[in-house]
């Protein structure tokens, strides 16, 4: 398995690499030939190590081609969220300094970019060249050198920034090997496993786990978007061994009728990994009850992984996101940079030993998020007496009501246990007396109707399970929620929408 995909493609070209939604199989050898074609084309455009390629593509074979091609030419690849507006895309392309922009035709048609080279996939776009018309040379390029992916943060506070790591100058495969080795704590191993992608690949986690699986020799089954029953169907059909999801995906799978869930054979599944948001304890327990102790969790971000917890550990420490990895230093600090006592909430700071990063073009942000060699993405957490870490929320989402902290994720997790709730979002809204009050925005579940009666039921449900200061003062209903394509709730959009809503009684 030396050099991950690159070595496997040479040693076992007939091994299945990709399976698309229509069942079309691409082998390692075929993918390698296409990667070489793209590599020769990028060099023909004049790109040299350190240059940047931006890609706004749907989940597709092209995504893997671009990661692997730039990964053997010493280039940076910048994946771009396909749901961004043209102006947001233009900012990332300009900020990254991309010399080449590659996009699916339906996305490219909306863009007005000043980039030296633009290539469209799956259709013509005026002013863009066709990705499919690239040179047909499939031979291995010479003078290969390792490239990197530069993901842009989601930009929850201001403009997104690229998480940039140095180029190694080494031959391709060193990082690939490290990525594959990094799957060992999750129980993923080099074999003929099958990894299911059901979230957008431009996001750090689906990218990282799918590419790591590919470097392990797994076959990648990819979907364009998450569909609960389609996921179960794919697990049975392709004998999927591992996948990565977010907690809202658990909720949607668990909300399928029992007869639908029981229709599919999930026995091939060895590892189901989740992260991205705090997961309600009841929801995760239901998943483990359903599929067995195969649900792994970690805490991490584009900047790096902090902790991992096995299903066995989690069952004895419900709600934890695990212990820090042995190689990583994690500290919980207060606003003055001092460590907080065990059991108290603090901002999570951690390091990325051996693979440091900076925020591209933003030394100020790089410095502002660091204390003593550690960095933070703004998550709040606490340690228990055994050193297990518990994620509370993002500092930017914290609600301060009457001088007391309320963590929205905790209230949301409780609301999601009510059978009439399909989704829940909790935000703080201005309150003349308390500073902020707690507002719950609810998406009713199947068969439930938004009404004053349902609102009263939910308030009673909160009264039965939450301390008084955590309980919503008001319930609002919404047919759906603003989320990223990876399932992350965009609370800031709800805060803007409901900024003028407060408890009229001021209670």
Automatic annotation (TrEMBL):
Keywords: Ligase. Residues 410-488 form the AMP-binding enzyme C-terminal domain. It comes from the Bacteria. It holds the Pfam family AMP-binding. The keyword Hydrolase does not apply. The keyword Ligase applies. Residues 9-353 form the AMP-dependent synthetase/ligase domain. Belongs to the ATP-dependent AMP-binding enzyme family. This is AMP-binding protein.
């Amino acid at each position: 398995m030396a050099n991950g995909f690159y070595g496997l493609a040479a040693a076992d070209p007939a091994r299945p690499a990709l399976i698309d939604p229509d069942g079309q199989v691409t082998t390692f050898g075929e993918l390698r030939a296409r990667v070489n074609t793209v590599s020769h084309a990028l060099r023909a455009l004049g790109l040299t190590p350190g240059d940047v390629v931006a890609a706004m593509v749907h989940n597709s074979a092209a995504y893997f081609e671009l990661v692997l091609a730039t990964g053997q030419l010493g280039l940076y690849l910048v994946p771009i969220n396909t749901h961004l507006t043209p102006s947001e895309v233009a900012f990332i392309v300009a900020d990254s300094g991309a010399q080449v922009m590659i996009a699916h035709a339906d996305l490219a048609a909306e863009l007005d970019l000043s980039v030296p080279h633009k290539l469209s996939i799956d259709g013509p776009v005026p002013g863009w060249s066709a990705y499919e018309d690239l040179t047909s040379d499939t031979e291995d390029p010479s003078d290969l050198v390792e490239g990197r992916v530069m993901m842009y943060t989601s930009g929850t506070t201001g403009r997104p920034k690229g998480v940039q790591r140095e180029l190694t100058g080494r031959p391709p495969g060193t990082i690939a090997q490290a990525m594959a080795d990094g799957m060992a704590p999750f129980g993923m191993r080099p074999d003929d496993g099958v990894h299911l992608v059901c979230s957008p690949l431009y996001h750090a986690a689906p990218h990282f786990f799918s590419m790591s699986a590919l470097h392990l020799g797994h076959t990648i089954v990819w979907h364009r978007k998450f569909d609960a029953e389609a996921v179960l169907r794919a697990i049975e059909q392709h004998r999927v061994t591992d996948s990565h999801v977010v907690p809202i995906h658990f909720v949607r799978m668990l909300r399928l009728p029992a007869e639908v869930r029981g229709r599919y054979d999930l026995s091939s599944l060895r590892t189901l990994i989740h992260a991205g948001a705090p997961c309600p304890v009841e929801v995760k327990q239901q998943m483990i009850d359903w599929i067995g102790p195969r649900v792994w969790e970690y805490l991490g971000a584009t900047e790096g992984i902090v902790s991992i917890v096995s299903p066995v550990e989690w069952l004895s420490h419900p709600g934890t996101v695990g212990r820090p990895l042995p190689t990583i230093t994690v500290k919980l600090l207060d606003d003055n940079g001092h460590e907080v006592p065990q059991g108290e909430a603090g901002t999570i700071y951690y390091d990325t030993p051996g693979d440091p990063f900076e925020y591209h073009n933003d030394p100020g942000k790089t410095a502002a998020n660091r204390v003593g060699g550690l960095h933070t993405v703004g998550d709040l957490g606490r340690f228990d007496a055994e050193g297990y870490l518990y994620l509370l929320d993002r500092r930017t989402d914290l609600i301060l009501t009457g001088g007391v902290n309320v963590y929205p994720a905790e209230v949301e997790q409780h609301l999601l246990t009510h059978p009439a709730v399909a989704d829940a979002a909790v935000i703080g809204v201005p309150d003349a007396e308390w500073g902020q009050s707690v507002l719950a925005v609810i998406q009713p579940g199947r068969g439930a109707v938004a009404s004053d009666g349902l609102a009263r039921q939910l308030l009673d449900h909160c009264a039965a399970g939450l301390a008084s200061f955590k309980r919503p003062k008001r319930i609002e209903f919404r047919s759906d929620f603003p989320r990223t394509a990876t399932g992350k709730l965009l609370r800031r959009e709800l805060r803007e929408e409901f900024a003028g809503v407060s408890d009229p009684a001021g209670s």
